[in-house]
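G., the chain you wanted modeled:
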Amino acid sequence: MTETVDVVLIGGGIMSATLGTLLHELQPDWKIVAYERLGDVAEESSNPWNNAGTGHAALCELNYMPQGKDGSLDPAKAISINEQFQQSREFWSTLVGRGILDGPSTFINSVPHMTFVRGEKDVAFLKARYEVLKDQPLFEGIEYSEDSRVINRWAPLLMQKRRKGEPFAATRVPSGTDVDFGSLTHQLFDHLAESGVQVRTDHEVRNLKRQDDGSWLVKYRHVIGRTPGEVKARFVFVGAGGWALKLLQKSGIPEIKGYGVFPIGGQWLKTTDPKLVAQHQAKVYSQAAIGAPPMSVPHLDTRVVDGEKSLMFGPFATFSPKFLKHGSMLDILTQVRPHNLWPMLRVAFANPDLITYLISELVKSHGKKVDNLRTFVPTARDEDWELIQAGQRAQVMKKDPEKGGILQFGTEVVAAEDGTIAGLLGASPGASTAVPIMLGLLKRCFPEHYAGWEPKLKGLIPTMGRRLNDDAAAAEKSMSETASVLSLTA
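Predicted structure as tokens:
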């Protein structure tokens, strides 16, 4: 007999963990089942070594505030991303207060966010960006300097043996954070399992089929023994990283037509040398190389994983046809459909610089990658840094009425018109904005429940529905209260 449940979550990452936690808080009587094809949750994009752990609040990421053709700077997107991260912080703070999450330092730690640029053009841009952001309430405390002594105090590794006469500048926001999304995901799923939610690892969802009554028949296979099974669900969330596209295609919903993804892998240079780690307490972002996608912006990061500090630099792009780190070599081919072939070809034709960038990255030796690091750390030595493999990112390609196809940056929810199934495509800022993304999904897919849920949601996220940046007092209150609960220090 086929099991019947209210909700199926596909994928054991931060998105499924966040949605599952929200739904369990809102409807504790609903039966929820989560499926993960690997032997544990948080083994793909949510794994701490598969992502940068940046609490993306647009404090240091230049691609969230690009310069217009006329030289103008619009802070709207940067403010929006910061607003979203504040919602995530409020939600995590509430869960810490309720004992659902462990001590804050197990998943979030204070790490200042910096931007460091060289050359007159980029220095002028960074200064203009600072002038725009310094009066925004959510960016309170941002500092700017072109003084080597000040920047040396902020991040000593950046300044050692720096060439004299070279124009450079930096901004710094002390309230930045490093987030271990792997630990956070584990804790959320542990709580769900303790609360009666079934978290089934080693289970691979193979197919999705809409039933006459509007529900979904979810067919899966137990990886160990290859035993098949199926479950019937009123709602399905596909949070399976790059494989979300494949599963949504199998569902047959028309909303997925025209979508394709291009997989981009990554590598990091990592060091645990105590002398180096002690000289760098920051996440430092810079400008992306020409042709590089936003997710490949170079940055030198302090990481805190399992209580241990290390430094990580990158990412360096790699290529694999797999949509997941543990995916299939046929992924890039099996996604092709008549409806998405032309958009994907148009993207390829329109982005030759991306192909050139990927090829240049693929031929880099370990030594050449350390050479790139030396633009941040002039004294870097090859032997102090090891190369580690990061996760796979599936860059979204979609149809466009004017261009035929475009490369879509960021994350995007694709949902059926009736709201019975939804999936998430894309990458950064992703995990940092999991809470507002899932709030949007709840509103879109459960319109008949949402109004009744709002009081509970506001109990979980007190400022939900408000624009903090429009109210300096509210912004300061939210940031200071969450900082206190999460044990964050500026």
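The mean pLDDT is 93.

Shout if anything looks off.
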